[in-house]
Amino acid sequence: MTQQVITTQDGHVQILRLNRPDKKNALTGDMYLGLADGLNTAGENPNTRVVLITGTAGCFTAGNDIGDLLNQPAGDHPDGDNRPFSQFIRAIDGISKPVIAAVDGLAIGVGTTMLLHCDLVYASDNVRFHLPFTDLGLVPEAASSALLPQLAGYAKASEMLLLSEPFDSQTALSIGLINRIFPAASLEQETRVIAHKLAAKPPQSVQSTKALVKKNRGDIASVITDELRVFTAQQKSLEAKEALSAFLERRPPDFSKF
Ligand code: COA
Question: Domain holding 81: CATH number?
Answer without folding.
Answer: 3.90.226.10
